[in-house]
Specification:
Layout (H helix, E strand, L loop, with lengths): L5 E8 L3 H12 L9 E8 L2 E8 L2 H25 L1
Antiparallel strand pairs: 1-3, 2-3
């Protein structure tokens, strides 16, 4: 993959590392569309979920992060209800 010039990194705090890891595993199952134009990686750093999005254009990064945030909201609400 060629270098993608635009990037954003989000650090989302969770109450503990195990919940951050559950969120990571839940979010990893949805691959990013347009994989040659945008790349989204999700990792856990302590109790933080770290999402980094690299894209060919700012628009691609914005659209990918918006989709990621929609999924993250669903995951966190589910964790809130059942964890």
């Amino acid at each position: 993959m060629s270098e993608l010039p635009h990037s954003i990194t989000l650090r989302i705090p969770f109450s503990d590392a195990s919940l951050a890891d559950i969120a990571k595993q839940s979010l990893e199952v949805d691959p990013v569309l347009s994989g040659d134009k945008v790349q989204l990686t999700v990792a856990v750093d302590g109790r933080y979920l770290v999402a980094t999005c690299n894209g060919d254009t700012l628009r691609m990064v914005r659209v990918s992060i918006n989709g990621f945030m929609d999924s993250l909201i669903l995951v966190t609400r589910t964790l809130e209800a059942f964890a």
